[in-house]
Amino acid sequence: MNRTNALNPGTDVDMAADLGWAIRTVREKLHMTPEDLAARAGVSVKVVFYWESGQRTISNKSLPRVAIALRTTPSRIYALAERHQRHAA
Predict the structure, then answer these.
(1) DSSP letter at 59?
(2) Which of these, 11, 23, 14, lies nearest to 79 by C-alpha position?
(3) Average of pLDDT values for 9-33?
(4) pLDDT tops 70 at residue 58
(5) 76: helix, coil or strand?
(6) What pLDDT sits at residue 30?
(7) The model's pTM
(8) How confident is the model at residue 67 (pLDDT cuts 50, 70, 90)?
(9) Element (H, E) at 80
(10) Residue 22 in contact with residue 63, Cβ under 8 Å?
(11) Which of 20, 22, 40, 88 would be 81's cystine partner, CB 3.0–4.6 Å?
(12) What stretches of 1-89 show up as alpha helix (H) in DSSP?
């Protein structure tokens, strides 16, 4: 059974954490700080922290902006998250 996120009811906590892991992994490979990503994606540093810690799932509206800021695509972020989820299982 999937756990849900209290901050985002109905959200699969594992996927939120895996998407956050993927965002952080790509960001770190680019030697980008959370502040850099926040500025480039037009969000607050607090929101980046929530995503990367798995406390909140990135929205469909924000994911394309984050992907552009990370010089990748939303599908690549999802693929990295899914691969991480499979290895953790």
Answers:
(1) P
(2) 23
(3) 87
(4) yes
(5) helix
(6) 98
(7) 0.83
(8) very high
(9) helix 74-88
(10) no
(11) 22
(12) 13-29, 34-41, 45-53, 62-69, 74-88
Report phi then psi at 4, rounded to 5. -110, 155
Rounded CA-CA distance 25/66 in Å is 13
**CB-CB contact of 58 with 66 (8 Å):** yes
Residues 38/45, Cβ–Cβ less than 8 Å: yes
Q: CA-to-CA distance for 89 and 78, rounded, in angstroms?
A: 16
Write out the two tokens for 4.
């849900």
Using DSSP, state whether 4 is helix, strand or coil.
strand
DSSP 20: H
Count of CB atoms situated within 10 Å of the CB of 59: 12
Report the C-alpha gap between 49 and 20 in whole angstroms: 9
Q: How far apart are the first and last CA of the chain?
A: 13
Most distant CA pair in the chain: distance in Å? Answer: 37
